Amino acid sequence: xxxxxxxxxxxxxxxxxxxxxxxxxxxxxxxxxxxxxxxxxxxxxxxxxxxxxxxxxxxxxxxxxxxxxxxxxxxxxxxxxxxxxxxxxxxxxxxxxxxxxxxxxxxxxxxxxxxxxxxxxxxxxxxxxxxxxxxxxxxxxxxxxxxxxxxxxxxxxxxxxxxxxxxxxxxxxxxxxxxxxxxxxxxxxxxxxxxxxxxxxxxxxxxxxxxxxxxxxxxxxxxxxxxxxxxxxxxxxxxxxxxxxxxxxxxxxxxxxxxxxxxxxxxxxx
Length: 270
Hints:
By secondary structure, this protein is of the alpha/beta class. It contains 9 helices and 11 strands. The N and C termini lie close together (12 Å).
């Protein structure tokens, strides 16, 4: 039986960067699945807080060099890689000078949410997909974590649905309580659009807020997972607004949670 291939996509991972529980989760789960015989790839943004020299990041020239369209503009994609100390895991970093060289993540020094965080998310999601295509590595499962990755399930079900690298991939979307209060400008819809995506498919994004991104990720993913131990009222209400009958699963972080993910992945592919 062939090894299951799992692509993990997240906004952060230990030990390179930690601002929320996402970083710990994406550090532990991939290693556990690799130890169970699965083949793993991990992609995160190269935020400016990540020290390249200290963490020994280096550019992967063969994967870099393509341009990613964000609205009317195209931005060059740079791919870097580093290994996690004491683990046989490599992490690929999506980089771009305009979007990721600030010495902060989503908020500036005055605690203002960056107005172009939508563009940074679009660039990241498209960059992940194009990088995996360049790797020529077809994942069985794409596990997306947090709002910044929420466009990937939709892109894989629309623009990339016939791409041989992704046509068999199942998507898992894990939601975290990392809510922001910012509302993006109305051109968000036009910036997100790609081939085979109609405006009606992006109706959840019309609100231009955190909830909109979460709803879109839940709508197009095959499985939704609540990272919180208990459903928050906000998250619970988001789930009930889905009209496709999809339920969010809660996998509690107890002694069995790694085994539960292992079984979930196998059931999805089976």
